[in-house]
Amino acid sequence: RIVYLNGAWLEEADAKISIFDRGFLFADAIYEVTAVIGGKLIDYAGHAARLQHSTTELGIRCPLDPDALLAVHRDIVLRNAVDEGLIYLQISRGAADRDFAYPENTTPTLVLFTQAKPVLNNPRIKTGISIATLPDWRWERRDIKTVQLLYPSMAKMEAVNRGADDAWLVEDGFVTEGSAATAHIVTRDGTLVTRPLSNAILHGITRASIIDLARNAGIAVEERAFTVDEARAAAEAFITSATNFVLPVVRIDGQTIGDGVPGPISKRLRAAYIESRLASAI
Ligand code: PLP
């Protein structure tokens, strides 16, 4: 793979970062993941806007202006001939002597790489996935997309050890979100229920698109927190994320959701998302 590191295009084996990089020592870094289909970027404007939110909240400087950042995204797809997959972008505050206080005048470290992945033909779409619920022990600024991913990683491993595909995280009895995705349910009267935006969850770009598409399709949407019990009794459940689009959930803590197969509203929203995002991909 050809990767991007601070203005240079390098073979991945030649891309090196300092051991003093604060991304490595403090997880003092943020990231974004953008899906690529047919060599085009999906929902790019949303990811670029959230990147801006994350860097602003942490006072990390993005080394490229918006036009240059888009150009690098386009270039990395071409250089790696990516048809379907993702672009990972990370910006850390940069390297400095180890100190909890932010050092002044560091040069941020900007990295982009690509990864091939079957997004449209993900084999789990037909079967749906199973979820285990676990306590949400992350920090309280989940609106910032930091690389502090150890707890989500532990939660996913615990879910897998319990025989599930992924974890939904729970705080005060309410589902916050998945380990790396937004959690949604559909009630028995066909209402899409998804947690409102706050610092308790990442503001999912796919979430925002799905809410719009649902409303346009005449599906009622309630932005409110839901409990694990409500999710287990729901007609349908699904997750959304940049590289999963809409992925049905058919089991939560061993309890079958609906008929145990991907539900009609989940399937409809997935199809609507794919149609609209392919049409607007750049
Ligand atoms: N919530 C968390 C914790 C995530 O890591 C992600 C990212 O994939 C999402 C939600 C979904 O966000 P998006 O739809 O922007 O990919």
From TrEMBL:
Function: Acts on leucine, isoleucine and valine.
Protein name in UniProt: Probable branched-chain-amino-acid aminotransferase
The keyword Amino-acid biosynthesis belongs to this UniProt entry's keyword annotation: yes
Pathway(s) served: Amino-acid biosynthesis; L-leucine biosynthesis; L-leucine from 3-methyl-2-oxobutanoate: step 4/4; Amino-acid biosynthesis; L-valine biosynthesis; L-valine from pyruvate: step 4/4; Amino-acid biosynthesis; L-isoleucine biosynthesis; L-isoleucine from 2-oxobutanoate: step 4/4
Enzyme Commission code: 2.6.1.42
InterPro entries from the UniProt entry: Aminotrans_IV (IPR001544), Aminotransferase-like (IPR036038), BCAT-like_C (IPR043132), BCAT-like_N (IPR043131), Class-IV_PLP-Dep_Aminotrnsfr (IPR050571)
Similarity section: Belongs to the class-IV pyridoxal-phosphate-dependent aminotransferase family.
Top-tier EC class: transferase
UniProt keyword list: Amino-acid biosynthesis, Aminotransferase, Branched-chain amino acid biosynthesis, Transferase
UniProt GO MF annotations: D-alanine-2-oxoglutarate aminotransferase activity
Reaction(s) catalysed by this chain's protein: L-leucine + 2-oxoglutarate = 4-methyl-2-oxopentanoate + L-glutamate; L-valine + 2-oxoglutarate = 3-methyl-2-oxobutanoate + L-glutamate; L-isoleucine + 2-oxoglutarate = (S)-3-methyl-2-oxopentanoate + L-glutamate
A family per Pfam: Aminotran_4
